[in-house]
Design a protein that fits this description.
Layout (H helix, E strand, L loop, with lengths): L1 H5 L1 H27 L18 E13 L6 E7 L6 E4 L15 E7 L2 E7 L2 E4 L8 H27 L9 H26 L5 H33 L2
Antiparallel strand pairs: 1-2, 1-4, 2-3, 4-5, 5-6
Helix pairs in contact: 2-3, 3-4, 3-5, 4-5
């Protein structure tokens, strides 16, 4: 029963990813791509604008911390009417690693976020720039859905299944299917991002892969059961 209750959390996460998170990110990206430049000569009167604003900043400091989950790439900016503060990046180049305190940079601002930073002819997107990468979001949602399905399947199986709990045990089916689900979602999601294929290809490929693994595990379990019964039946 506890597995059935625990499966509700990943089920809700899966629903949130596909019903809220992904549509919101895709709509934000389309809005960003379709945004026009703010009217020339119009001063910035508020922090949040639906147009693309160009503003000049002074670099106060930079932070390039590499390695592990603690990797941080940031620049602290000041000197504009709004938007002063720390800007995050996904990597140190090509611009961030060359910035020094006191450098002047030009930023593209959209809806209160600095999306691009540039200096002379070098540009770098910030972590706030909307991206057309729903494939990894779909991979996260698919993995959450698979977790919910596994919890539901194992919970029902333990309640009404056969006396032998092997198929519904962690070492029986649980661990192999969890590893397969995580590896398949991560691999297919990354390949989808790199190749630019549509996001729906991620669940379309991952689900059959996991189902195939479950079938192979079930087949092996049935063979082991048949062999054990045959050995017991020998005189």
């Amino acid at each position: 029963m506890s597995l059935l209750l625990m499966s509700l959390a990943p089920a809700l996460a899966c629903f949130y990813v596909f019903a809220v998170w992904m549509p919101s990110d895709m709509a934000r990206y389309q809005d960003y791509r379709g945004a026009e430049r703010c009217a020339a000569g119009t001063p910035a009167a508020q922090a949040w604008e639906d147009c693309l604003r160009t503003a000049s900043f002074t670099v106060d400091s930079t932070k390039l911390k590499q390695g592990g989950n603690g990797g941080r790439y940031r620049a602290t900016l000041s000197g504009a009417p709004f938007w002063n503060g720390t800007v995050g990046f996904g990597d140190p180049g090509p611009l961030l690693s060359g910035l020094r305190p006191g450098d002047r940079v030009t930023a593209t601002v959209w809806r209160g976020d600095i999306t691009v930073l540039s200096r002379e002819d070098v540009r770098q997107s910030t972590s706030e720039e909307p991206r057309d990468e729903p494939q990894m979001t779909a991979a996260i949602g698919t993995f959450a859905g698979l977790l919910a399905a596994l919890g539901l399947w194992f919970g029902v199986g333990r309640l009404v299944g056969p006396r032998d709990p092997t198929p519904f045990a962690w070492r029986g089916f649980g661990k192999p299917l969890l590893i397969t689900s995580a590896a398949a979602c991560a691999t297919v999601g990354l390949l989808a991002v790199w190749s630019g294929i549509p996001w729906w290809v991620v669940p379309a490929l991952v689900l059959p892969l996991v189902a195939c693994m479950a079938w192979l595990l079930g087949r092996g379990w049935r063979r082991q059961g048949a062999t054990a019964r045959g050995v017991k039946g020998l005189p």
